[in-house]
Amino acid sequence: MLYSILLPIHSIVRWLLVIAVVVAVARAFMGWFGKKAFTALDNKIGLAFTSLLDLQLLIGLTLYVISPILQTAFQNFGGAMGNTQMRFFAVEHILMMVIAVVLAHVGRTLSKKATTDLLKHRRAAIWFGLALLVMLLAIPWPFSAVSRPWIRF
Asked: Is 153 a residue whose pLDDT tops 80?
């Protein structure tokens, strides 16, 4: 029951998160290369991105524990590693997403602590950009080997 509720929420939050990170990265790069001031809006966008990422991680970890796919995988973990789909969800997806969370939080912390606006934007651009790259690699796109629909209901 909980699984069937959380899975669509996880799918929808994914798109909110993709929008938030693209906006955060775009603003950071524009601020960096445009030599613009780091505004309260830039800070709020970074906060929104990392907050959505934390929410998505919480939902994802809950799904990780209750997922029927992963429960099957954990019954024979060695065998599951030979199955592309099970390996992706049991190891690759969660590992890459946790890395993305760490990258995003490091970027947010370093950008907040930077002493100049240029440095704030540069740190946000680099770290948020790395988080975005890892996230895009970890999403089970409909065209990937572990295909999932664009939105799950």
From this structure: no
Residue 148 near residue 140 (C-beta atoms within 8 A):
yes
- CA-to-CA separations, 109 to 26, 71, 91, 112, in angstroms, rounded: 18, 36, 27, 5
pTM of the model: 0.92
- Mean pLDDT on 119-139: 97
* C-alpha span between 61 and 1 (Å, rounded): 16
Tokens, residue 78: 């060695």
Separation CA 109–CA 31 (nearest Å): 17
**What's CA 14's distance to the chain center, in Å?**
8
> What is the C-alpha to C-alpha distance for residues 118 and 28, in angstroms, rounded to an integer?
9
- Over residues 9-62, the pLDDT tens digits come to 999 999 999 999 999 999 999 999 999 999 999 999 999 999 999 999 999 999
Rounded CA gap, 104 and 52, in Å? 11
Tokens of 1: 């029951």
In angstroms, rounded to a whole number, what is the distance separating the alpha carbons of residues 116 and 42?
A: 14
